[in-house]
Amino acid sequence: xxxxxxxxxxxxxxxxxxxxxxxxxxxxxxxxxxxxxxxxxxxxxxxxxxxxxxxxxxxxxxxxxxxxxxxxxxxxxxxxxxxxxxxxxxxxxxxxxxxxxxxxxxxxxxxxxxxxxxxxxxxxxxxxxxxxxxxxxxxxxxxxxxxxxxxxxxxxxxxxxxxxxxxxxxxxxxxxxxxxxxxxxxxxxxxxxxxxxxxxxxxxxxxxxxxxxxxxxxxxxxxxxxxxxxxxxxxxxxxxxxxxxxxxxxxxxxxxxxxxxxxxxxxxxxxxxxxxxxxxxxxxxxxxxxxxxxxxxxxxxxxxxxxxxxxxxxxxxxxxxxxxxxxxxxxxxxxxxxxxxxxxxxxxxxxxxxxxxxxxxxxxxxxxxxxxxxxxxxxxxxxxxxxxxxxxxxxxxxxxxxxxxxxxxxxxxxxxxxxxxxxxxxxxxxxxxxxxxxxxxxxxxxxxxxxxxxxxxxxxxxxxxxxxxxxxxxxxxxxxxxxxxxxxxxxxxxxxxxx
Length: 499
Prior knowledge:
- By secondary structure, the chain is of the alpha/beta class.
- The chain has two domains: about 20-340, UDP-N-acetylmuramoyl-L-alanine:D-glutamate ligase, CATH 3.40.1190.10; about 345-490, Alpha-Beta Complex (Protein-Tyrosine Phosphatase, Chain A), CATH 3.90.190.20.
- About 40% of the residues lie in helices and about 15% in strands.
- The protein has 19 helices and 16 strands.
- The protein has helices at about 20-25, 40, 45-55, 75-85, 115-120, 125-130, 140-160, 170-180, 220, 225-235, 250-265, 310-325, 330-340, 365-375, 395-400, 420-430, 440-450, 465-475, 485-490; strands spanning about 65-70, 90-95, 105-110, 185-190, 210, 240-245, 265-270, 275-280, 285-290, 295-300, 345-350, 355-360, 380-385, 405-410, 435-440, 455-460.
- It is globular and about 60 Å long.
């Protein structure tokens, strides 16, 4: 694929912003992740994002794309695709949302396998060969430089239509497109922010669309039934692309089939056109075999917890196969999946007691979390540390998790949409006999970590914002866990204690 960075129609800024200045400028845009406005969100039109991209030279047209939508599992599928592409000779881009701790998490670019091999003969080899958390994130300097570049166009759009300026998510999406173009990315994996039809990512002409399980979430914006939400998700489907779908409810699958027929796009469905078989599942992940669209991949290791990750891996492999003209080498799939990481989703962060962090915030995700706890933690006492956004259904979470836990501690993140812990406790009480309130999340985590038995289980859930804050907090010196998993692994005792 030949790359020529597209001409960006931007004025020369007076001076480059610092990273802090760039963050302050970005934060001044309307951020619906922080403050929901369903009416305004329903009125967002894709035309504004198209205008923004046109004025930037349409950088999203300079690379191939895979777009991933759905209700749950989008991030895991994106992470798996990125991990596999990272093992190929292609340079991959990854755009996801929301972030857990740092906004730069959302925009990543890999070095190709051949680049890393060539670098092994240089003094900089360790920096490229040893992948650590954050290695692929957009650097602060380039983050600030691109915001500086975007500012003249953004300000012009603000002056044009003062009542409808670009949003925080639209700015970040445009920024990702510009960065991917500048880095000469071959393939970009783009996670839809919400819905699909009117999402800022839907300006791309992707080669492959992936639709993970569709269920109820964001109902005040996307619709109150699975079928209504499916219509929004199906809005990403375009002519002459391949569509890869998870197993779906009958009504959802009918809508996806109709959309694909209308667009002339082939649809491949998990369980019909490609499958997965789980050989083993424990606290370290699972071993699976997958029959894809073009090949069979035996005995793959997935280091992500949860049986649902087998379907996610199958979706990722099928999408990669649909993108490729020649099939995928087994070794590339095997190496990629072995190295995949996706933090804050059934993530085991402590082994004595077991501590899971999972951002489950809708009925489907809560059900998956409950099933996993039943399977992997039989006979253990489970304590919930929960905080939710005010627009989420506490009752659905309570119905799935309440019967499994002996206590629930209600807290909140610093996110403006967070539900007050006292209200959360009141709504959770019918599902759990022992409910407490501790407004400071870090204090609640420290209390539970030191109060429960070493054989017990703590589950932090209800919100990715809560999970992100606590992941950052536990790295502070004053909050050292009693026995981090990394220490246990170093002592040869495994990354987790089997249930």
